[in-house]
Design goal:
With 449 residues, the protein is an alpha+beta fold. Helices cover 34% and strands 26% of the residues. The chain has three domains: 100 residues, Rossmann fold, CATH 3.40.50; 68 residues, Dna Ligase, domain 1 (2-Layer Sandwich), CATH 3.30.1490; 244 residues, 2-Layer Sandwich (D-amino Acid Aminotransferase, Chain A, domain 1), CATH 3.30.470.20.
């Protein structure tokens, strides 16, 4: 195992990684921006390196500065967390070039899976179902592909992630404007305006499979997560197991995920995402979406039902150790749900909020957070404050437990989406497991009433 690891992230995931490093007896070094220099992560880390600047672009996304911070403090490895530099092949390559271990897949794997069309082709080559789709270099080629596929369809960015560039196009007359807007957004975000189109799967559930793989040829899955409660392709609630996945479908999903990750030469923790459609002739079809080649925000629900520390396993794999268990050794116990508590106002179109927290507590729940009462939530970064995780023996017992814990939770000092989560867990459609990826936005006015 490593003696010192640089944590190249912030907020709750930085705290999460630092706590595992402490449990393993590994020295933690945090690279922190000026707004985060007194954060909870900075208070917990063994050492802090200040990244001069306030914005993510000037600090956490500065590859040279992050690598220099690791080298200057004697770190052997860098854990990127999620977001920021976690999926950047150039960052993984820069770490390797500096003699640092990147806790994640290789630069080559990141390049392959970061190209959504290449990942889709890899899925097809390995008998993983995909929705009908095609790419196009010009707008005219995209329009021709769209006519062949039919409407409604989904317009997607070939590179990047986070839902940027994604557009649902219901009618042919809306396609040109959607292409223009998607190209503009993806060019600004990723420097890459290439797009492709796929058949839009209506009333689908977003289901993903957690995979772990090492450098010794071992790969296991840790079950699936349902992430269907989302707004503008940003997840808000995640749970495991999925309420729409039966044992037969679970076998198909997990087998497909493992085939794909083995074909990609994947090492470390990663997630294969699928859309699961409405039942057809007694079975639900599923379609490959993409691979998230990193730790996911929602990993705590998997930890809750498997009793595994995914961060510790990531570090062990990165250090060259084989997975300490086989697939048959993995045990799944109970049901877990995660609620992302964000500093945003659902009644004002989810306007981000900033300010000082006067209270932050969730008695009886797992609360992963980068803050404590009295801390300021800065305006420079994403709005995630905490993740409230509830575990119970079965879904029917976990739902009322979640309702009680959300009601008892306190998150004061600024506007948050906590009231929305209370409404979600009380809604009959969510309770019945019927919340699709369209559900939250469609029913939002009633939930906020």
């Amino acid at each position: 195992m490593f003696e010192a690891v640089l944590v190249a992230n912030r907020g709750e995931i930085a705290v999460r990684i630092i706590r595992t490093l402490r449990a393993l007896g590994v020295r933690s070094v945090l690279a922190a921006s000026v707004p985060d220099r007194r954060s909870l992560a900075a208070r917990l880390a063994d050492e802090v390196v200040l990244l001069e600047g306030r914005t993510a672009a000037d600090t956490y996304l500065d590859v040279e500065a992050v690598v220099a911070a690791a080298k200057a403090t004697g770190c052997e490895a860098v854990h990127p967390g999620y977001g920021l530099l976690s999926e950047r092949p150039d960052f993984a390559a820069a770490c390797a070039g500096a003699g640092l271990t990147f806790v994640g897949p290789s630069p080559e794997t990141l390049t392959l899976l970061g190209d959504k069309v290449a990942a889709r082709d890899l899925a097809i080559a390995n008998d993983v179902p995909v929705a009908p789709g095609a790419e196009g270099t010009t707008d005219a080629e995209l329009a021709e592909a769209a006519r062949d596929i039919g409407f409604p369809l989904m317009l997607k960015a070939r590179g990047g992630g986070g839902g940027l560039g994604m557009r649902v196009v219901a009618n042919p007359e809306d396609l040109a404007a959607a292409i223009e807007a998607a190209r503009r957004q993806t060019a600004a975000a990723f420097g890459d305006d290439r797009l492709f189109v796929e058949r839009y799967v209506e009333n689908a559930h977003h289901v993903e499979v957690q995979v772990l793989a090492d450098a010794h040829g071992n790969a296991v899955h840790l079950g699936e997560r349902d992430c269907s409660v989302q707004r503008r392709h940003q997840k808000l609630v995640e749970e495991t197991p999925s309420p729409v996945v039966d044992p037969s479908l679970r076998d198909q999903l997990t087998s497909a995920a493992l085939r794909l990750m083995r074909a990609a030469g994947y090492e470390n923790a990663g997630t294969v995402e699928f859309l699961v459609g409405e039942p057809e002739e007694g079975r639900r079809p599923f379609y490959f979406l993409e691979v998230n080649p990193r730790l996911q925000v929602e990993h705590p629900v998997t930890e809750a039902v498997t009793r595994l520390d995914l961060v510790a396993l990531q570090l062990a794999v990165a250090a060259g150790q084989p997975l300490p268990f086989a697939q048959d050794d993995v045990r799944f116990e109970g049901h877990a749900i995660e609620f992302r508590l964000n500093a945003e106002d659902p009644w004002r179109d989810f306007l981000p909020a900033a300010g000082r927290l006067t209270a932050l507590a969730a008695p009886g729940a797992r609360l992963d957070t980068g803050y404590e009462a009295g801390d300021a939530v800065p305006s420079e970064y994403d709005s995630l404050v905490a993740k409230l995780v509830v575990h119970g023996p079965r879904r029917r017992e976990t739902l009322p437990r979640a309702a009680g814990l959300l009601e008892a939770a306190s998150l004061d000092g600024l506007r948050t989406n906590l009231p929305l989560h209370r409404a979600v867990v009380a809604d009959p459609a969510f309770a019945a497991g019927e919340a699709t990826v369209q559900w939250l936005e469609r029913d939002l006015p009633a939930l906020l009433d």
